[in-house]
Design goal:
By secondary structure, the protein is α+β, with helices and mostly antiparallel strands. It contains 21 helices and 21 strands.
């Protein structure tokens, strides 16, 4: 894929490790539901009298929203029963710090805006967001790309349940401060998109003030190809999948452009589709979907799509307009649709297909689409599917899509426009003074590459280990416990290798928090046991044992020098013949025997030195 075939821009949203943006609630997710209340949300007009198209589509779903308000992580501000408090100054400093790291220009005065959101994720019906800085730059693959905007905004509520007509949110996440940073549309390969996201994420972590873990950072990627349109894949959480989402979106847009060209070759034009009630026709049909809908009082509806045969799903599955139509239909509340390119199937045999084509007077290049559900829902879904089919005449529609686990994406809603933004009247403007920026610039954090090089040099570990410690967020704890170069090696191996291995073995890692790890390393540093015992100590610590209990249970209290010497001498003397035959080459084979008796009781390096001396003593006699 050449750089002329793809244009991408990134938006990254990163939670900050502070109190909430407009109140003093903690920013932790909890299991407690708390009290419940219900709301319905409606879109409002912008200052110019317009209603945002994305908000309008969402409002048409007519959903009811239930909110859970846990008392330790939410308050009246989150419930929109109290005005917002002053914006969190700590959170604003973090965004200004990050912006300064990318040489951005801070605004003179911060003004919060309301961004219309009526999917229920904000109790207010809008999200508060403010521009903090502009015109930053980031080096990616040896060239500079622009980072035009740095915003501070509040995170949305957390969806915990959804059922017919109602969605449930928990307010513990609502109001957590977010950095929102956007690059220019200057990324031209899938790997370049990943590299930009990695560098931005790494620099955010360098502030030491961002949250870590699944759900604390998400990427939105905007993608277009020549002849296509801007499509936003929103909410990618796995960095490693970013290139795959880009590649699959490029494939999707190319297939839609091919469909557009074929439709034009067939002289297909947009028509008002006649939706026909086919309930009586399908009454005896064994299809479980259709029979189930009819039994509940629903209808089976259908419409012709002249000129669309072979494009809803081509034999090689490379053209799949039917899947796009189904996604638009599902947004109206139905489980799906049927179309002629996938039939006979789903209990609809060839006889029904042939009779229906005859009934609709369809030619070889004509297709049809069906939907069975409650009458109004079925008609709305069918019209949405037909509308999406005719949108293919224009190629690629602008839209927001949700990421799927396999790297593909699904239609979510139209791209929002400028009509969803209007001024926030409850939060006063905030001046960004010169003294504030001077203080921030004088205290910028250590950049990631500099930190990696320093840790590797200062603690005598491999550069790749240092890089992984920083990348995985273990660097602070590592520097805290690595009190000598020998202990640094053990700490690096434990954090990067032992912990993942314990997790693969099914150990409950939730019990091995940083405090537990500090306790284990402190005991190791004090000489309570040898570093070889660390995995066993951690495994027992994860089961609720204290370090003292683990040491006692394993029987690995450190032995004295005399005791260790006696054990090594016994091992050597019991194998005198072997030692005299192998000479100094016996050290390697006997080391395993020695460590099986001294594991956890003596450091491996010390044991090796004792073994060498005992073998030399025996050989000299």
């Amino acid at each position: 894929m050449s750089e002329h075939e793809l244009t991408c821009g990134l938006e990254i949203h990163q939670q900050l490790d502070t109190r909430k943006l407009f109140c003093d609630c903690r920013t932790v997710l909890v299991d407690e539901e708390g009290s419940n209340f219900l709301r319905r949300l409606r879109p409002t007009q912008s200052e110019l009298g317009e209603i945002d198209r994305a908000a309008l589509v969402q409002a048409e779903k007519k959903l009811r929203f239930r909110y859970q308000a846990p008392p330790d992580s939410s308050c009246l501000v989150d419930a929109d029963e109290e005005p917002p408090h002053a914006a969190n100054a700590d959170a604003m400093d973090i965004v200004l710090t990050f912006a300064a790291m990318l040489d951005a220009r801070p605004v003179d005065e911060v003004h919060f805006m309301r961004k219309l959101v009526v999917d229920g994720s904000n109790t207010t019906g809008f999200q508060r967001t403010a521009m903090i800085a502009m015109d930053g730059k980031l080096e990616v693959n040896g060239r500079m790309i622009s980072v035009p905007t740095f915003c501070l905004e509040e995170d949305a509520a957390r969806k915990v349940d959804a059922k017919a007509g109602e969605v449930t949110y928990r307010l513990d996440r609502l109001g957590i401060p977010l950095i929102e940073v956007a690059t220019g549309p200057e990324l031209h390969t899938p790997e370049e998109v990943k590299e930009a996201a990695q560098r931005l994420g790494s620099m955010m972590r360098a502030t030491r003030r961002v949250k870590r873990g699944i759900g604390t950072i998400r990427e939105d990627v905007n993608i277009s190809i020549p002849g296509g349109a801007r499509v936003e894949i929103k909410g990618v959480q796995e960095l490693r999948l970013l290139p795959l989402y880009v590649e699959k979106e490029v494939e999707r847009q190319r297939s839609l452009l091919r469909i557009r060209d074929i439709l034009r070759e067939r002289d297909v034009t947009r028509k008002d589709a006649e939706i026909r009630d086919l309930s009586e026709f399908f009454a005896p049909c064994p299809s479980k979907v259709i029979a189930g809908a009819l039994k509940k009082g629903g209808k089976a509806l259908g419409a012709a799509l002249p000129g669309f045969a072979g494009l809803l799903r081509s034999p090689d599955a490379k053209l799949r307009l039917g899947a796009e139509m189904a996604q638009y239909a599902r947004a109206k509340g139905v489980a799906g649709i049927f179309h002629s390119d996938e039939l006979p199937a789903y209990g609809i045999d060839q006889g029904y297909v042939d009779k229906l084509r005859e009934l609709m007077e369809l030619g070889p290049q004509d297709a049809f689409v069906l939907c069975a559900d409650e009458p109004r829902r079925a008609e709305a879904a069918l019209r949405a599917a037909i509308g999406r089919a005719y949108d293919a005449l224009g190629g690629v529609p602008e839209e927001t899509r949700d990421p799927l686990p396999d790297g593909a994406s699904a239609y979510s809603r139209p791209l929002p426009g400028a009509a969803r933004m209007y001024p926030e009247t409850d939060v006063p403007p905030i001046t960004v003074g010169a003294e504030r920026m001077q203080r921030i610039r004088e205290n910028l954090p250590e950049l990631t590459d500099v930190r990696i090089a320093r840790i590797a040099s200062e603690y005598g570990i491999h550069g790749q280990q240092a890089r992984q410690l920083v990348h995985d967020g273990w660097d602070d704890l590592f520097e805290e416990v690595a009190k000598s170069k020998e202990l640094a090696g053990a700490a690096a191996r434990t954090l990067l290798s032992t912990l993942p291995e314990l997790e693969r073995q099914g150990v409950d890692m939730s019990k091995l928090d940083e405090e537990a790890l500090r306790e284990v390393f402190s005991a190791l540093s004090a000489g309570r046991f040898a570093k070889e015992a660390v995995p066993d100590i951690l495994a027992l610590r994860a089961r609720g044992k204290s370090v003292d209990q683990a040491v006692k249970e394993l029987g690995i209290s450190m032995v004295s020098s005399d005791e260790a010497t006696a054990i090594v001498a016994r091992v050597v003397n019991e194998r005198e013949t072997f030692v005299r035959e192998k000479g100094k080459g016996a050290v390697g084979p006997l080391m395993g025997v020695v460590m099986s008796e001294l594991k956890g009781k003596l450091d491996g390096k010390a044991a090796s030195e004792l073994l060498r001396k005992e073998i030399e003593r025996l050989l000299s006699t």
